[in-house]
Write the structure tokens for this entry.
Amino acid sequence: MDSVSVDKPAGAEPGLNEKGSRKSDSIGEVVDGNTQLQRHLGNRQIQLIAIGGTIGTGLFVSIGSGLATGGPANLLLGYSIHALMVCLINNSLAEMVCYMPVSGSFIRMAGRWVDDALGFLAGWNFFLYEAILIPFEITALNLVLTFWTDKIPVAAICVIVIILYAIINILAVQYYGEAEFWLASGKLILILIVYFFTFITAVGGNPQGEPYGFRYWYSPGAFAEHIHTGTLGRFEGFLGSLFSACFTVVGPEYIAMVAGEAERPRVYIKNGFKTVYWRFFVFFVLGALAVGVVIPYNNPQLNNGSGTADGSPYVIAMQNMGVAVLPHIVNALLLTSIFSAGNAYVYCAMRSLHGLACDGHAPAIFKRTTKKGIPIYAFGVVILFPFLSFLQAGSSTGSAVTILQSVTEGATMITYICISLTYIFFYRACKAQGIDRDTLPYKGFFQPYGAYITFVYMILIEGIFGYTVFIPGHWSVADFFPPYTMAFVTILLYFGWKIYHRTSFVKPLEADLVWEKPQIDAYEATFTEPPPRFRDEIWAMLTGRKRAKENHMGEDVSS
């Protein structure tokens, strides 16, 4: 095979409804293979989903535990290293997804290009990961609410949030996109507030009028000791900060999951992936630096675990300085940030279960959608998981957060292992089939070496994540299972499917690099006008001007 370029097939003109008339009321309302999802997510929505869709509890609350464990220098180092590794994951994923922007994304690619058993593993691991994170975010939301009062019944908050998630995700996908646009905007405002707070107070703009700068890097110090003392203790502190980053620094997989419902995916999704590099630096690296500046690692409130808003290091710092009003604003925005993250997990869990069904890895009923393209039966299963948040009523909030975080952290590494391995096979297939990567919509840099590096790195992190239980005197069955539960589950999933179905690895020459490319090429070819720029869409929204609607032939139908 010299090329996978396929001309638009005769008679395959998208934009015709069952009666043969053209659709003129949306852009991209097409049947994506056998998935029945609809392309309604525009550039403005995708960019904000890419920027803020994964910023939630980790960056504003859980990062405090990483600081307490390792100190400010270890926190900055751990976040920088892991952010670099996830940037390499983004580099691999962007190349594959921009080339083949299908529903289910990397989940289905793993089965098509590597091994059907790997697709089964990747899909169920990601589904469980997303589904379990939903109650985690509700748990965190309850924790932040206690900043004002602990009189609100936990169950009442759980019910309200579940209802809101259900309403947003049962409507057409553009309503989800619009909700995420505004919620993500709130996250950007929150980021700016805490950064300005950090800078202004550090140079002396605080109630005490004292410029403290990097004082906490000197006293109590830049490196904290964890478990042991001395050099070994400081190294273990670094590992603790690195593991904190493993939960917080995520994102490329969420851009990939909206590819099957994106308008002009090879343009808008590509732009979304390109924002990841600067976003990781601005949000995660600078975020780690800011936290280490405003509060010392030995502040007892960082590991309070009492179920109060003391879990947010920024709020702790504001209260310690005697700053009024601002803690309330930060906590209000933090609530929207956490809610948004949970909303994104509902969306991704639904689409991953739907993608599993499309490839025969889950019951076929889960690929059925409503007329608006919502996988309704997948929604019915996913919406059950938030009810796990009611477990808070019988245990401390801090304990529930810790357990859920540990379980999902292991699943994140497994997802990245699958993505790295899938890219390695994709790269080999392109080379064997004579596909020039320079012709792809997005060409990753430093490949395939970047994929090999992340493959080894993520396996290493997955293996040592729960190392503390193996230290003499630290063994505990309760501490052993949270970090390794998903590893055991995925091993059973992979080998169970492989043995039962007798699957084998896909040979480079046999990898299906055509797949849904003809339909996607035909869809992309229907747009005759250049895509609107993000800033132009924002300006049009602010000024009340609507961009012209086009049908699938690029004809203006807005009048």
